[in-house]
Write a structure and sequence with these properties.
Blueprint: E1 3-13, E2 18-28, E3 32-36, H1 43-50, E4 58-63, E5 66-67, H2 72-76, E6 79-82, H3 94-104, H4 109-122, H5 138-149, E7 156-160, H6 168-183, E8 187-192, H7 195-201, E9 204-209, E10 212-217, H8 219-224, E11 229-235, H9 241-249, E12 257-259, E13 264-269, H10 273-287, E14 291-297, H11 301-309, H12 320-327
Parallel strand pairs: 3-8, 3-9, 6-7, 7-8
Antiparallel strand pairs: 1-2, 1-4, 4-5, 9-10, 11-13, 11-14, 12-13
Helix pairs in contact: 3-4, 5-6, 9-10
Length: about 325
Amino acid sequence: MTDMIRATGLVKRYKNTTALAGLDLVVPEGTVLGLLGPNGAGKTTAVRILATLLQPDEGTAQVAGIDVLADPMGVRARIGLSGQYAAVDEHLTGFENLEMVGRLYGMSRQKASVRARDLLDRFDLADAGDRPSKTYSGGMRRRLDLAGALVAEPPVLILDEPTTGLDPRSRQQMWAVIRDLVSDGTTLLLTTQYLEEADLLADDIVVIDHGKAIARGTADELKSHTGGERIEAVVADVARIDDAARALAAVAHGEVQTDPTRRSVTAAVEDDGAGRLMQVLQTLRADGVELLDVGLRRPTLDDVFLTLTGRAAEDDETGTETKDEVRS
């Protein structure tokens, strides 16, 4: 299988931080690699290097077999890029936006027009195609932006946090569109900080933190790193959350996680999850701790990130990557 994206030892430094610290990536043809990490982890820096918008300080990268430094125009001709924010001209209609992209790629007006109408149909935007895009919802703008990345039918698609800021319904629509693209054989690099997104869409996942890959594998392989199952309980009275935490600590493997906002307590157990759950329920009943919900579940990718880094994936400790990119 051909590797459509290959990066080795990517390093990128800004004045105040090292955004990438030796990142390696491989994306075989027709697969989806999920690049997972919090804000500031280095995801967007990696995307900008692969899209030839930044040059690495060290390391090499090839996209569709073309070196990003030796032939950036060749790379650009073979990729579609959709960034974190929809890059559409709000004064143009949806059709005019897509037609303009086609013309910029050197298509004839007729071919660009046909391609624009085809993509509007595919992305469920046909009814709004002749309206100014400033009248579109956030989800519609994101779909239009993604359609623009596909005008030239690139073999490689790079999506940088494509569902950031979308409501749950719009996010589900974007996931459906992305799954269709992958089923058609598109090679995709997907950056995200949404764990369920990587779990749902990616064949393989690379978890990065502070510019380094800290884990890689399939969703199931990464989940296996945390071991066992999780007992999760939600108390009726937040004042009893410490009592619940003590009950779970008696059966837990590792630290018990508490979330007072959600009134939840979570603990990993190594074996006999059902038996451990029964033990916890008996203890809580004896202590008079009322529960709103309780259950046994398999570890999620959120659990994986917490295990690997000691913090949740949505935590944004620094945000320095984006700030320093703007300065540069």
